[in-house]
Amino acid sequence: MIELDASHRMVEEPDAVQEITPAFRLENVSFRYSETADALCSVSVQIMPAESVAIVGANGSGKSTLLKILGGLAFPTSGRFEAFGSKIDAVSFHHPEFAHQFRRRLGVVFQNSDSQLFCPTVRDELAFGPLHMDLPVGQVERRIAEVAALMELEHLLDRPPYHLSGGEKKKVAIASILTIAPDAILLDEPTNGLDPRTQQWLTEFLRRLNQAGKTIVVATHDLYLVSHISSRAVVLNEAHSIEKIGPASEILQDSGLLARVNLIHEHV
Ligand code: ADP
Ligand code: MG
Question: Whose CA is nearest to atom 27 of ligand 1?
Fold first, then answer.
């Protein structure tokens, strides 16, 4: 309920404020691949629905590991991870229906498109996700047509993915995730290895996806990408913990911070 206060400004009563459930919430999440080597140390961060967040840091700082945890592809060694308001761990994934619901709400685009694409044709690649959601064939075909048009992939639909260029493979990998219509899209080093024009196309495309309401999380050391698509950045240091979380524009201007975490040369 909105009321006027003594100074005749409009004030909202506290009970009118609705809590928004974060898309992702990590609380003191640590991860190790083996007993001896930490990959993430006590990471706490929240990502809200429709946010565009970059995870930045030097090679080996833990960006890909953090993205794997957000995508439910690895579970924290300790700490708590929640996605869309539910706790995610190995136990919750024992329930096939829960795992299924989680998987249809987000898509992960791997750094290496070859490890993502496995179907005989691009069309099959785009059909794979929605067919596994048990959608009727007509609806699957409609989604393929829509996404292929959006990404200008129509002329490639009958081609085998392994014959495509790196940029085309990246587009197909993203398209194969868009056909499941996820709420959140997680991308690991999406611009790596792409030519400048394709990089620019992808940057603009991710910006439009975010404007359309998708939660976008990129793990990247491409600061151009961060400056164009991300409202916030999570900076990981070489000790695998959070150095800073803040507005991307502020972080990109903090050359001391970027040099400290080994993202730019000291003398820049
Ligand atoms: P980034 O993506 O920032 O380069 P990663 O998340 O890939 O960093 O790696 C974080 C740390 O975990 C590094 O020390 C890396 O060597 C280690 N690591 C990554 N993947 C594996 C793996 N599959 N097995 C063992 N150690 C790994
Ligand atoms: Mg990585």
Answer: 33
Nearest partner of 161 among 193, 120, 202, 111, judged by Cα? 120
Q: Which protein residue's CA is at the shortest distance from atom 1 of ligand 1?
A: 60
Which of 178, 69, 81, 73 shows the shortest CA–CA distance to 115? 73
pTM flag (> 0.90): yes
> Does the Cβ of 63 fall within 6 Å of ligand 1?
yes
Residue 112: nearest ligand to its CA? 2
Q: What local confidence, expressed as pLDDT, does residue 268 receive? A: 61
170-219 confidence digits (pLDDT tens)? 999 999 999 999 999 999 999 999 999 999 999 999 999 999 999 999 99
Using alpha carbons, list the distances in angstroms from residue 163 to 73, 145, 160: 28, 21, 6
236 CA: nearest ligand 1 atom:
3
Q: Which of 32, 56, 64, 241 best tests ligand 1's pocket when mutated (most atoms within 8 Å of CB)?
A: 64
Of the candidates 10, 82, 16, 68, the one whose C-alpha atom is nearest the C-alpha of residue 39 is: 68
- Number of helices and strands in the chain (H, E): 9, 12
pLDDT tens digits for range 50-87: 999 999 999 999 999 999 999 999 999 999 999 999 99
Q: Rounded mean pLDDT of the chain?
A: 92
- The residues pairing with 233 across neighbouring beta strands, listed in sequence order, are 54, 246
Q: Phi and psi at residue 53, in whole multiples of 5°? A: -120, 140
Q: Give the Å distance between the CA of 64 and the centre of ligand 1.
A: 7
